[in-house]
Amino acid sequence: MHEEIIREMRDLESAIEYHSKRYYEEDAPEISDREYDLMFARLKSLEESYPQYASPSSPTHRVGGAVAERFEKVRHEVNMGSLQDVFSMDELDAFIEKTGRDLQYTVECKIDGLSVMLTYEDGVFVKGATRGDGTYGEDVTANLKTVKSIPLKLKRPVKRLLVRGEVYMPKAVFAAINAEREEKGQSVFANPRNAAAGSLRQLDSALCARRRLEIIVFSLELCSEEVPQSHKARLDLLEDLGFTVSPYRKLCSGDGVRKAVEEISEMRPHLAFDIDGAVVKVDDVVRRAEIGELANLPKWAVAYKYPPEVKESKLLDIAVQVGRTGVLTPNAVLESVRIAGTAVSRATLHNIDYIRAKDIRIGDTVLVHKAGDIIPEVIGPVLQKRPADSVPYEMPALCPSCGSPVTRDGGEAATRCTNASCPAQLHRTLLHFARAMGIDNLGESVLQTLIGRGFVKSAADLYTLDSAELAKMEGYGEKSAARLTASIEASKQASLAQLIYALGIRQVGEKAAITLAERFGSIDALASADGETLKAINDIGEITAKCIVDYFAVERNAALIARLKELGVKTEEEAEEKGTRLAGMTVVVTGTLPHLKRNEAEALIRKHGGTAASSVSKKTSLLLCGSDAGSKLAKAESLGVRIINEEEFLRLLGIE
């Protein structure tokens, strides 16, 4: 019997270590929070019952995950511990009895996000760090400054203040970002918590800012001034200083804790953020010190974890929608079931890989929940209830919108329509084309009207628009029509790089378009290039090369280019005479330069015969480095690549 217990403990340790790394360090969980919590609780229970078999390196002795190497390591001035989880009202009652039913408790929402410590000096935000392992965290100050609900300056100066909070991604932002990622064929975030963690740990602060994170501060950890001895009063103080604190924070006696926890549960579907429980804390800070703490867990607080709401439903069909970028997205058509306060009859299935991994089939009884309490999602089938005649699901071979063949590249989760003129993606395709070609005054609403009236069915149709006809549209006069047609006419002289980018070839952004234009000089030469030729070009990898070849192999796309030529759009460019100062050299730009923008520096590199690359490798000749440089600088140093600043760069080019 003891051998079985030891084996179970070792197996649990191994599984928890693996899933902890996936959750805390890689932000890519493979199991639900509840499955992880139950494994953790089981191991703790076994260690308490059989302490002689407990491993000194057990994951129950640690908090959170390791510190990522890409961030500076920070030692916390105040240890960032975790909380003891309880999963039933009986366990919650046991905690109340042990600490003292006559005490006052503060009950708050348990935000499902990433815990951080914020440091203020003289009322100004100076440092922010993730929890990490509780003792050491990651310095993410630059990224935290993009979180708008973090005050960069307090409402009144405090000499020194440390507060702890939870960074989260609002439900609405989570839904919008996942929809956008799904539209682009990218993998979606599992839940708001992992979306927030992945965003906050980006090296690019601009990307973090675009993720629109928020914070709720839940604890005053250290203050140079005298502060109240009541936790709730401290939260009120933090709110007065400019912090966002939990909108629900109730002070109650031991007998009222259960009701407060149930009230938060009822509020859960209506909150703007995701929660996975309620936190119950002894309110009196002096009394807390008397109750004491374990190594990394306070004995005066617990986190009550709500069970996930999962319902069974019948999968009636799988409906495939075509997005604006041509991505085919499968959606479950379900028998209506009520989850988190609303009726659910449709749920996302993400992509064919998700369906295959879960072995989801039409006719199955499936388990459904709401990811982040907002997006209906099929968890998987109930195999015991599977019909005997069920068959594995396959994505359609033809686009449901236009009937063109679909394709799926290796390494990508998305299945895509190959027709750039597919009606389902026409609006987005044309909007991208207009912006890339520099066509002004063609906004989304105007474009939608043109498509709706049948004036425009492809990018080439823009060049056949009649000013007089446009002037007849509601809200569109002669001057507006004339400005638009003049802008369209001027775009015929756009650069070859602009045209290549405007075509919307997958994986080909503005930078790759410039590289391709310089290498081939005409759209015909690019269309004739094979995969091997394309792969040999710097910054054009195997996947991008295949996307280019596939694009020009589609007859409709070739016909579009032929028509653009007929209408006078420039499709080739005279070779520009280049300097030789950087001939044969590959140069990477990183950080913020004092005077040059990155695209300006890269243009100079190309003008003087060099290749502007985006990543550092053994082939890199120079790294042009500005302030706030990140991982590229470290890699260049490790490879012995020559590093120069803007002044040295300009001197190298003979520019004073």
Molecular structure report:
There is one protein chain. Helix 12 crosses helix 13 (444-452), helix 12 (426-436) runs antiparallel to helix 16 (496-502) and helix 16 (496-502) crosses helix 17. The chain starts with a helix and ends with a helix. It has 6 domains: 2-61, Orthogonal Bundle (Helix Hairpins); 73-305, DNA ligase/mRNA capping enzyme (D-amino Acid Aminotransferase, Chain A, domain 1); 311-385, OB fold (Dihydrolipoamide Acetyltransferase, E2P), CATH 2.40.50.140; 423-493, 5' to 3' exonuclease, C-terminal subdomain (DNA polymerase, domain 1, Orthogonal Bundle); 496-566, DNA polymerase, domain 1, CATH 1.10.150; 586-652, BRCT domain (Rossmann fold). The protein contains 24 helices and 22 strands. Strands 12, 13, 14, 15, 16, 17 and 18 form a 7-stranded antiparallel sheet that branches. Strands 2-11-10-3-9 form a 5-stranded mixed sheet, with helices on both faces. It has 656 residues and is of the alpha+beta class. Strand 4 (114-121) and strand 5 form a beta hairpin. The chain is globular and about 85 Å long. Helices cover 36% and strands 21% of the residues.
Keywords:
OB fold (Dihydrolipoamide Acetyltransferase, E2P); 5-stranded mixed beta sheet; 22 strands; Helix Hairpins; 7-stranded antiparallel beta sheet; globular; alpha+beta; single chain; 656 residues; 6 domains; D-amino Acid Aminotransferase, Chain A, domain 1
